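Lab channel / #folding
Pinned by the channel admin:
"Please post every new chain as: sequence first, then the structure tokens as a reply. Keep commentary short and put observations after the output so the thread stays searchable."

First post following the new format, from NK:
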Amino acid sequence: MAKGPNAFRTISEAADDIGAPQHVLRFWETKFTFVSPLKRAGGRRFYRPQDIALLKAVRRLLHDEGLTIKGVQRLHRELGVQKLAAFGDPDAGVSYSPSALDEAGLDDSRSLPAAGDANPVRLQTVLAEIEGARMRLEAVLDR
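Reply from TO:
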């Protein structure tokens, strides 16, 4: 039986969804403070849909876009968790409403769209892509 889209995932399920080994997910937890799955007794990890979107974003930025760990950390500081997650969930299948962010421990209100914005998710995705391109250009110029 398949899990629903809002169901929590174990680390093995999350690793399969993201396309990265389990030990890499554990490593990313140490490098990215915004990745924090729920931990139950015995340290067993459970990943929320928001965690999966963030991990997909991290994977894409590191592996597909060529950013470094410090580059992803900087992108998170500059854009916030919602815009960063747009790299992993471009279709906005995961809710980043204030209540969902608060429940998930991912509240970053400075990155939430203003009320009445026209298609804010798409605009944020485009902005995140532009910011990523800018950061890659800066990295090349710094070399």
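NK: The longest strand covers residues 45-47.
TO: also worth noting, Residues 92 and 121 are 7 Å apart (CA to CA).
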